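Encoded backbone
================
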Amino acid sequence: MQRKALTEFLRWALVVLFAFASASCTKVGLQTTPQSSFGIPGTLRYADIQEVSNLNPLLRLEAVGTDLDMFIYGLFFNLDDKERWVPELATVVPTLANGGISKDGLTITYHLRKGVKWQDGAPFTSRDVVFTTKAILNPRNNLQTRNGWDHIARVEPVGDYEVRFHLKSIYAPAIAQFFSESGQYPILPAHLLEKYPDINHVPFNTHPIGTGPFKFVRWVHGDRIELEANPLYWRGPPKLKHIIYKIIPKDTTILVQLQTHEVDAWFRAPSNLYPEIKKLKGYRVQLEPSNLFAHIDLNQKNPLFNDVRVRRAINYAIDKHRIVDNISHGVNIVAATNQGEFSWAYNPNVMRFDYDPQKARALLDAAGWTMGPSGVRTKNGQKLTFNLSSVAGGATGEAVESLIQQELKDVGIAAKVKNYPANIFFAGFQDGGILQTGKYDAGFFSWVAGVDPGDEYSLYACDQFPPVGQNNLYWCDRRLHEAEKAGLLSYDQNVRKKSYAITQEEIASQSVTVLLYFARQIYVTSPNLIGFVPAPATTSNWNTWEWSMR
């Protein structure tokens, strides 16, 4: 799930994974194991099934890539475990009250931290902020979304340590979007990249330089990415000395490596393995709220899904409670909207799709799809069949697909599972990504929602079809589109809440994206990992300079 969402799916998406509606957390009892059996002091080894497609954060979507970004790069602000802004490369969060946002809402001023250095020793200044902003807006660069950034009229350096963003119009999510964790993009080094007309194919993309606490060492494709402590980090050298991200394409293999203590942490463990994960000896296992929801996108390029009765029939045919109870073992929470109940924008009064196969059959009958002798419905000689796609190797995804396949078959729909490696499924439009190019029928994955609902504009607005944005649904709903636009044009939360009530109504009732569940994230960590504090935002890597391994 990862569409970054993850930012997942990731910010996906973002890929490229999962969220909950309560501020509480659950901790499973820790069984102790002799400390000497856990890894290497000073080195963290963590694993996931996904390999990033790129180490330049402007050019990819995967949520596991965002995890890496938080080690390597720097943002204006990080989000802590209470979703509060933690100043990083900027020293003060701009507001109307402190004058950081002008009275007319059109100018935002950031004061930059002095004394920060890039990992090659060059100084960090306003030049880097201006360059990265222009790189994001440069149409030659293969970004998957410029959502929000296109509200910028110009960016103005005021000396080396102050930057002003002049906006074309009020953009309510600006603080959450511009160089903040929720907005996907960290700041890149001007002195290394401004010489290129575009950054699509430059050495930096596989050998990055950042301002973050850890330096890139090597990338062994298909196996691992290695980092080491940055001695020039502005807070001082981090406590960890080395980090190894192990790319292991099967969830069950990661579980085995946890059992044999070849891995110290799994930050995105799948819920279907929760019973086995709870049995791991000597690990902390934590269930934590996150902003991630799982869904099935019905690609509107496929005429099968143009009829709302067919889409709603698919929605009614899927037993979301069974998915949560049987596959996630009660970890996840059934979703009715794309905003969690903890969000100020949450609208509880949307159309609900409780499991009702009889209603699904009636809708399909009304739409002219009649049951054929093979148990598959037909209309005008065409069978009601399509591919259901997700990330290959993900145990949760495959289990959900299998259950959905059975339930759709029960109402006369033949869904065929066709999965792809994560780096292909979530790849950008220019790289032929399955989702972004619309080369799929129904796509199951997760999206990591930002702290501000305005980030959904890129997912659903009519002018956000790839490669401009991330509307891989290829869906244009004018009522939703106008509400999305209105939600960006006021800093008044009460005004915005009315707009997002409308967007949630349309998303639910039109069933172009079938909402399955919000997820609680499962974190598996060695007791020797000190300082790790899970957060509900895009990633929990907000304070990695404080982590240590005994």
In short: The radius of gyration is 23 Å. Residues 434 and 440 are 6 Å apart (CA to CA).
